[in-house]
Design brief:
Chain lengths: 333, 276
């Protein structure tokens, strides 16, 4: 029996990195409890090699629920299908990613299973003596860290913030079982019809998965100036983000907004230019590994949480940085 | 499209009153928020849910009613929603509900919505800015057994039979059609929020807001409040805020400042330097 489960995510048959991050989390918990780790994948047309990859990355078992009608995420049918599987195998812990899918599926499933659920965890541990899962998450806009447990209900469920941990290295020698689970006819029935996915939307970004984010705020002065950030982003393989003030002024689209009412990101590197660092903006970047700020106001709050602060005019600093990075790249080749 | 005369759509919007961000205090003993003192507002993300519902009403007729679970003072949030144009509101308040986690909250709200006679559509906020879980909306859909679409950025079509929406996901906008009754949670992109009007404010003062307690609702007492919540807060801590980073001033020499930054980025292996 597998006691720790992770919910893997795939897109177009390709596993997402967050699936491996979850396995790294799950492996640590399973080892602490001396138990087994399984990954559950729902979808259609996922190759054997991809399923095997979950084993290579730490799973002892892979449950693959394959059905054409489950290929796209629909909360209702996925939740029904999973609830049956959970009742059958009774895992002690279920981890999913704090993505649009995980954050929708898990609360729905938790109600069906009478289970406790903690959102957006950044730390997970096993409590000595009780074997309860200790789930730590930022709350109140990142101002506090709350540790939560579910002493009486099982399974213990948590969503885990993407990029809050690194996947385990591949171990091609690892052995594991792949178990194909047929979907139940009644459960794939749903009152939701997927019509398609529009990826052509102008100005669409998947900021949450970016390794590097270059963000601009009101200090950018006008929409055209975001070109400076795009040039910099091109040198860093980065995506462009923004503060709410920049979005509200129409300089850039809402999918770029970072913060309390936008996206929460955990990139390796965040560079904020012309952003003051309001508490609401900081809520979205606190788990970034490295924070760089460029602001001419020495007292800007972003400076005080930055790992590297440049007090100066962004219109001087940003183009200079772009130029230097370009030169570095040219020197390399 | 559904015409006004046909069948008016009944929309319910669950809204939460939250402390204004920035000045929230926690009780270190219980791990719950100290609500007294901090100014309370309608959860800013719920304003988009209200706006989306009002726009649907403007196009298709019907009514928009808000429901809020919270302390008696949360009536202020309901009046604010009415001032924006909502038809009415219901307050769900009882000491027995205190300390509810999202599981218990969605359980209680589901009972309140049943008491209200259900609805054709429920539009919730994406998440509350205090708890920041985004769990109550999906939880409500599960309790009420209605189809769910989260992170809705656009409503493209609505008729008596169903509603078509675009969900903001990591891959793009997922386009889905839901049979009614259904539940949506909406993101900020859905619309620009209107301000309350003077006339609305006057109406808000005059509108009677029913108060529901645990006794009014069909509820299992073991599932309420702190006791009925599966999750327990065991510890709260302040994360380290200042990173004590390096700082350089440009002072007329951006090249020097950028030099220092590049050295720093190289040292952290965030850029591959030209050095061997
Ligand atoms: C409920 C609520 C939710 C919110 N959610 C969010 C959210 O999700 N995300 C978000 O970002 N905000 C959010 N806000 C807004 C937030 O409070 C701030 O208003 C916003 O973050 C400020 O944006 P800014 O830093 O771009 O602008 P400002 O605070 O005006 O800062 C601009 C900065 O640019 C600097 N500057 C100007 N010119 C230059 C130059 N030439 N070179 C260098 N520096 C320069 C200035 O010194 C200043 O520090 C929210 C607010 C509320 C009430
Ligand atoms: N106490 C409450 N009363 C009414 N609605 C609520 C309450 N708590 C949460 N909600 C609704 O659920 C959404 C998500 O809240 P949360 O899960 O707490 O992040 C909010 O935007 C509201 O629409």
């Amino acid at each position: 029996m597998s006691f720790i489960w992770t919910i893997a995510e795939q897109h177009d048959g390709e596993l997402k990195a967050v699936s491996f991050e979850l396995l790294a989390r799950g492996r640590a918990l399973a080892d602490a409890l001396d138990t087994r780790l399984a990954s559950v994948l729902i979808g259609a047309e996922v190759s054997e090699a991809q399923l095997q990859e979950l084993v290579v990355r730490g799973a002892d078992e892979v449950y693959y629920i394959e059905d054409r009608r489950l290929a796209e995420f629909v909360c209702e049918s996925w939740s029904n299908t999973l609830a049956t599987l959970v009742r059958q195998y009774q895992p002690a812990v279920i981890l999913a990613a704090a993505t649009s899918t995980g954050r929708t599926l898990m609360p729905h499933l938790a109600v069906k299973l009478n289970a406790g659920l903690t959102a957006d965890c950044t730390e997970l541990a096993i409590e000595a003596g009780t074997d309860n899962l200790l789930q730590t998450r930022p709350a109140i806009g990142g101002n506090i860290m709350a540790t939560i447990k579910t002493p009486d209900n099982r399974p213990q469920m948590a969503t885990v913030r993407p990029r809050s941990t690194v996947p385990l290295p591949r171990d091609p020698q690892r052995a594991g079982k792949i178990i194909r689970v047929p979907a139940d006819e009644a459960e794939v029935e749903t009152r939701v019809r997927v019509l398609g996915c529009r990826t052509d939307a102008e100005d669409f970004v998947n900021l949450e998965e970016a390794e590097v984010v270059v963000a601009g705020g009101k200090g950018m002065k006008r929409a055209e100036n975001f070109a400076l950030l795009r040039d910099l982003a091109a040198q860093l393989d980065a995506m462009v983000g923004a503060s709410r003030d920049a979005v509200d002024r129409g300089w850039i689209g809402y999918p770029h907004q970072i913060g309390l009412s936008g996206k929460t990101i955990s990139p390796k590197l965040y560079i904020g230019a012309g952003i003051s660092g309001s508490i609401q903006h900081l809520a979205g970047i606190k788990t970034a590994e490295t924070i760089v700020s460029v602001n001419r106001d020495p007292d800007a709050p972003l400076h005080s949480i930055a790992d590297f602060a440049i007090v100066g005019d962004l219109f001087e600093v940003v183009p200079e940085l772009t130029r230097r990075l370009k030169a570095l790249k040219a020197a390399e080749t | 499209m559904l015409a006004y005369q046909e069948k008016p759509v009944k929309i319910i919007v669950p809204i939460k009153q939250v402390p204004e961000t920035g000045n929230v205090k926690m009780d270190p003993q219980t791990g719950t928020m100290i609500r007294s003192g901090a100014a309370a507002v309608v959860n800013p993300l719920d304003l988009y849910a209200i706006e989306a519902a009002l726009r649907l009403r403007e196009r298709h007729g019907g009514s928009v009613t808000v429901v809020s679970m919270g302390p008696p003072a949360a009536i202020k949030a309901i009046r604010e929603a009415i001032a924006m144009g909502c038809d009415g509101g219901v307050l769900v308040s009882d000491r027995k509900f205190a300390g509810s986690d999202t599981w218990a909250t969605s359980y209680t709200l589901a009972a309140a919505i049943r008491w209200m006679g259900g609805s054709d559509l429920i539009v919730a906020g994406e998440r509350a800015t205090d708890g920041d879980t985004a769990q109550v909306g999906p939880g409500l859909a599960a309790w009420l057994d209605v189809p769910l679409a989260t992170y809705v950025a656009h409503i493209t079509h609505a008729s008596e039979a169903g509603i078509s929406v675009e969900r903001l996901t990591e891959e793009g906008y997922q386009q889905v059609e839901l049979a009614l009754p259904a539940l949506l949670t909406v993101v900020k992109e859905i619309a620009t929020v209107r301000l309350p009007t003077l006339r609305g404010k006057k109406r808000a003062r005059q509108t009677e807001v029913p108060l529901l307690t645990a006794a009014d609702l069909d509820l299992d007492g073991a599932r309420l409040g702190l006791k009925g919540s599966p999750t327990k807060v065991v510890k709260i801590a302040r994360p380290k805020v200042a990173r004590g980073g390096e700082r350089v001033a440009v002072n007329g020499d951006p090249a020097a400042a950028v030099d220092a930054l590049i050295a720093f980025l190289e040292q952290r292996q965030l850029v591959t330097g030209g050095r061997q």
